[in-house]
Amino acid sequence: MAPQATQTAAAAPAKPAPAFDVDVDRKGKAPPSTKFEDLADGSEKTMDDFKDKPLLVNLWATWCVPCVKELPTLAKLGADAPNGLQVVAVSEDMQGAKVVLPFLKDKKIAIHPYHDRDNALMLALKEASLPMSILFDADGKEVWRISGDLDWSGAKAKELLAMGGV
C-alpha cells in the first residue's frame, strides 16, 4: 500500500480590514443647507451650525449592522474631540426619536442624537448607502467621504482625519 500524502495545514488568512474607498471627487465643495433635527431639543440644524471647526458627518440607522458596529468608536471620537473635531451622527431611521433615542439608551451609546427627516440630508449629499461618513474642514469644505464602517479609534481613522487637519 502506498503511503498517503500529507498536507500541511495552511495558516488561516488574516481577517481583512473593512473594504471602503476614500472618495475625494467632491473635495472643496460646500455642504448642502438641508435641515435635520436635533433630537435632544427638537431644534432644526444645518451643517452651517457647525462651521469654523472640522466636522465629521456620519449617516447611520438603527437597522444597519455596520452602522451599529462603528457607533461606539464614533461616539468616543466625538467625546475626545481631537483638534476641535465635531462629530455629528445623523440617523436615517424613518421613525426618528421614537426609535433612535431608546436605541442609543439601550446600547449605552453616548452620542448626540440627530435625525434626518425623510432622508433629505442623505439625498442632498447624493448618498444612498449606510454608513456614510463625510469630513469637512474648518472652512466648511468637503475633504473626503467613505462608505462603510470604520473603527474610529484605529490607525486608518487617524490617517483619514489627518487629511482634514484633525
TrEMBL record:
It is found in: Cell envelope. Residues 1-19 have a biased composition (Low complexity). Keywords: Cytochrome c-type biogenesis, Disulfide bond, Redox-active center. Residues 1-36 are annotated as: Disordered. Its main location: other. The keyword Cytoplasm does not apply. Residues 11-166 form the Thioredoxin domain. This is TlpA disulfide reductase family protein. CDD domains: TlpA_like_family. It comes from the Bacteria. Pfam families: Redoxin. PROSITE patterns: THIOREDOXIN_1 (PS00194), THIOREDOXIN_2 (PS51352). It comes from Sphingomonas natans.
